[in-house]
Amino acid sequence: MDFCSIASGSSGNCIYTGTDHAGILIDAGISARQVEKGLNSIGRTAKELSGVLLTHEHSDHIRGIGVLARKFGLPIYGTSGTLRAVRNCSGLGAIDEGLFHEVAADESFSIGDMELLPFHTSHDAADPVAYRVNAGNTSAAVVTDLGIYTDYIVDHLKNLDVILLEANHDIRMLQVGSYPYYLKQRILGNRGHLSNENAGRLLCRILHDNLKKIYLGHLSRENNYEALAYETVCSEVTLGDNPYQAKDFMIEVARRDCVSEPVHI
Known about the structure:
The chain is α/β, with parallel strands linked by helices. Helix content is about 30%, strand content about 25%. The chain has helices at about 30-40, 60, 65-70, 80-85, 150-155, 170-175, 180-190, 195-205, 225-240; strands at about 1-5, 15-20, 25, 50-55, 75-80, 100-105, 110, 115-120, 130-135, 140-145, 160-165, 215, 250-255, 265. Helix 8 (about 195-205) packs across helix 9 (about 225-240).
């Protein structure tokens, strides 16, 4: 299975994962042209895709799906609440109703030789989920837009080969920054976003010897920067209650403006 972040950040998110027999996007919050360019850079094409899985309906996760659906007949998977909200997004243009496929949290489904498992996340959207992808003996997960994590989340993230995990903001930068009070409270709340510190603490609970790659994603443009997210997460891992150090793992910040280094697992 191949895994690659095409774009990840508060301005747009799109993750590719696929096998020799099927390929999917998890979210398409960038333009269709950017999606195609990113896929081409890793030797893939949009017309080869088997579908796009939506985590939720916020614009930085769905911006490109209208064009992708019309141009390539791309199936769109999401929970009932997410699809209902997407249908009400007039800015996406007309989408063939037959392309929508409803999924439910904690009920797995298959696309080609990949098994997909949506699971609930805590975020201020209609019915948000994250996804775990299993193919053969390998597994990956994309987990962003997460206000808090619980034992339920941890259980769904055990024994992964690859994870893209949100490290959205530095708490101090957010607190002293220019955002209005209500927006700061939203981001810091239980239905907001995961801070650098909490991303590191969550990682401490799911690390294991065979975890091959960690991507830190969905960084805020205004309240974070790459080096800070990386160093904070690494510090939490190295100093945390676990037998590992950050140097034991390949950790990379997934960038908003360019394709990350793909990993084959």
